[in-house]
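Example 3.2
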Amino acid sequence: MSETVLTLRRGTTPLLISLPHVGTEIPESLQARLVERALAVEDTDWHLEPLYAFARELGAGMLVPRHSRYVIDLNRPPENTPMYAGANNTELVPTRFFSGEPLYRAPVADEKAEIDRRRAAYWQPYHQALDAELARLKAEHGHAILWDGHSIRSELPWLFEGRLPDLNLGTAGGTSCAPALRAALMAVLERQRDFSHVTDGRFKGGHITRHYGRPGQGIHAIQLEMCWSCYMAEEPPFTIDPARARRLQPVLRDLLQATLDWNPDA
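Structure, written as tokens:
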């Protein structure tokens, strides 16, 4: 594991939180090739690390990358296949903003070589750490639960129609975690009244949820995609709203607690 590209904080429970899109750093060698707008890394999953900070009290571990998704998208398959067929998708090495405009001043001269280089330097270490930690948790606790945390602007016409629900739970259509765990999380969402929600709607889970969720082998994966509007300003400088964050965090706590209360042997 390379501390230069990620940080892994181990917990004391079967729960590991992955935050693959919170990184903001862009290597200096890449900056000149991007349009100036890209240096503000607007498509970051802003403020998720402090928003989920309470999870450490619950005994959850956390995996956090250092670099921006503009360098490479850690939640895309290594072979760069589209996550959502028939829709606009961002790539393993993104070339467009979420609004559809180009990220680069000019096309990458040797695209395959550049993708291979970034995959080895950034993507592979994150997934090696993720795979190893899930294996460790399963060995120690008998099962592991991966919570893949994301956030996004509530309206992005290039990627989806209309406005997203506030909280978007993804379980790859019910295949990435045990049915009872999925039901327990859906029950938490149904009980609260502050946020709209959907399960396995537009966001069913990206590569991380789909690849690592193997409930038959004791590894359960869930993605939560939240709208920025739940806890922050949706326009620059993308500041967190403490009042909104305080309203959201109890719901997040209840969701994570439900994963810890779930008994795979029941």
